[in-house]
Amino acid sequence: MAKRSVRRDSTQDHMYTALKEDAQLFETYKDAFMAALLFGYSNERRKKVKPGPEILLGIFSEQDLQFMKLIMHLENTFERFSIENDSEDESDVTLENYDIIEEYAAGGLDALYQELEMFLTDPESAQNAYLDLMLKYEQKEFNTEDLINELPFN
Predict the structure, then answer these.
(1) What is the pTM of this model?
(2) Considering its fold, how many domains does the chain have in total?
């Protein structure tokens, strides 16, 4: 049976509320979840999730879902190649492992909240701090060749 939702970490409700309601950085919890997922994945931050509120997958855009599937595929590929059992067939690897997505979002939310915490009481300051953080990542040097060399196919 296909998964119909992703879970948010129950211990992070106050963080979602602070980012969405208090700081007004995101229109929806789905938007905060996706920002946390991107931040978690780009910073390699994962955290085990304590089941909490769910976000229905139908709320996510097609682009959001494709990004989630890309992360799941990359993680499953790396995990498959790190296992010493050579008999594992690629068809055994599922692309429905939303636990990975939930863990990156939870880890990313912790990190994102920590980066912005001192600005969250004032929406304008929070928005400026968030934009500064995004600009910092936008200006970060990214070398495609380094990424290719990290792939397990070499």
Answers:
(1) 0.79
(2) 1
